[in-house]
User: Fold this.
Amino acid sequence: MLGVLSALMNDGAFDFSAYPHRHLLGIEGLSPVAISLLLDRADSFVELNRRHDNKLATLSGRTVMNLFFEDSTRTRTSFELAGKRLSADVINMSVSTSSIKKGETVVDTAMTLNAMHPDVLVVRHNDAGAVKLLAEKVNCAVINAGDGRHEHPTQALLDALTIRRRKGKIQGLQVAICGDILHSRVARSNIHLLNAMGARVRVIAPKTLIPAGIERLGVEVFHEMGAGLKDCDIVMMLRLQTERMKGNFFPSVREYFHFFGLDYAKLENAKPDALIMHPGPMNRGVEIASDVADDIGRSAIREQVEMGVAVRMACLEVLCANLSAEGSSQ
Assistant:
């Protein structure tokens, strides 16, 4: 195991000790150095993933469990691919048929899974804080794949990697995050990451979809797309999360698109080379027009999906390297 750790630490001069954390529960609190390590390591996996022979033996013998209490396509599939590309044993837990549906608590589930000795547990849960609670009960590393309205750290990392590869930097860029800010864990994680890396962040939404006190996170708030998008380098659209809404947050979908849906008329306010992003899944004609989403020159939406596998490979590798370091020090 020490030989594997040594190889990991010296591969491409990546010092994994720059990420001194057992888990990845959120972006808040991560240093720019830790974020840069994850982005740099992910960047090194991008070309590998484009090759036919794209499998490494890095995590051979490791076990990764995906435990998703909420439905997911992109996140769960990319974590599964990431683990398999690194030769880990990957297990997808089906919550719909598990003991949780029979009344077992999250803590009891954590203790049960802990007894199986996984190395990494990837968890998505509909309650904010549930993943942190679970992480306190297990011996393995835990990655937050999205918890309620709280955070979605790997989404923010893949968004940052997409921006950095397209723009060559993050620092100094003007980024507008538009749409359902109130219910979005993606928005929260991106705000933390972009601020940490020196970008300037705006949020644009109706007043009903802006969290109270969000200015404390270091963002400018706009309620009109024209003013909010003015001179922006990045335009990041968000899905309306109607499944989390209780009550009326806007008059109608048609009216929402008229005022806050991204079309070319509104995009005129941003810089001519502004990058268009969306974490998915997209609701075409609701938060973004189809021709804008499919703009080959300006849309990075498909690239975001591709970057997701590379980012999750980096996270799995770094956390497993830290587990090895813990084991060798005991």
Notes: The first helix runs from residue 2 to 10. Strands lie at 63-68, 89-94, 120-125, 141-147, 174-178, 200-204, 219-222, 234-237, 275-277.
